[in-house]
Amino acid sequence: MYSFLNNQFLPAEKTFVHVSDLAVQRGYGIFDFFKAVNGKIPFLDDYFNRFYRSADFMQLPVSLSREELKNIVHELLQKNGVADAGIKMVLTGGYSPDGYEIATPNLIITQHTLTMPSAKMLEQGVKIITHEFRREMPLVKSINYTTGVWLQRKVKASNAYDVLYHLQGEVSEFPRCNLFIVNKNGIVMTPANYALEGITRKNILSLSGMEVKATTVTLTDVLQAREVF
Fold first, then answer.
1. Domains of the chain (ranges plus CATH)?
2. How far apart are CA 80 and CA 69, in angstroms?
3. What is the per-residue pLDDT for 208?
4. Cα–chain-centroid distance for residue 149?
5. What does each C-alpha distance from 18 to 7, 25, 99, 127, 164 come to in angstroms?
6. pLDDT in tens, 71-86
7. Between vectors from CA 91 to CA 96 and to CA 135, what angle results, nearest 5°?
8. How far apart are the first and last CA of the chain?
9. Is the pLDDT of residue 30 over 80?
């Protein structure tokens, strides 16, 4: 399996950065993740827009144009010969001279096995737990997932699938995805505040043909909902 680091394709096992990188020293960097199905990547421009927007906010210049980056992603798919896959792009804080100052970013692109929900999960649903937390920069897709990772043992000990963030009862998001509910009136609702602007969320809002309301969603709303997804 090949990966991409800065200006070259490398075997995945030889794709690495130096310990001085701010991603290692301070957890500073951004990323994005999207799926290729039959070699096609839905909403790729949306993912790129979010990636470049996050990079700009975090003061991490991307050395490649969008067209160059798009070509690299497709070339990586071809090199690895896997039509169904997850693609992860990471832009790090770079090799900092003092472990604190932003340096020239490192761009890493990796390909991963695509996992899909089981039929049982789709038919029966999953259990979730809640945790009171709000991400520091919710509009940036940061590599900092400290709280979500820290909660994994609690999630597993609870025989749950994931954890839903809220603050004083106002729901925001899951660590890795957005939340939707269908209320008792059949209206689809999703949190409008303090959540990453998910690409799937965006396209559900624009393409669903249903009445979808981006608004304040509470834990009570979730508990009383007809459906949660």
1. 2-113 (3.30.470.10), 120-228 (3.20.10.10)
2. 17
3. 66
4. 14
5. 16, 10, 12, 39, 34
6. 999 999 999 998 899 9
7. 95
8. 33
9. yes
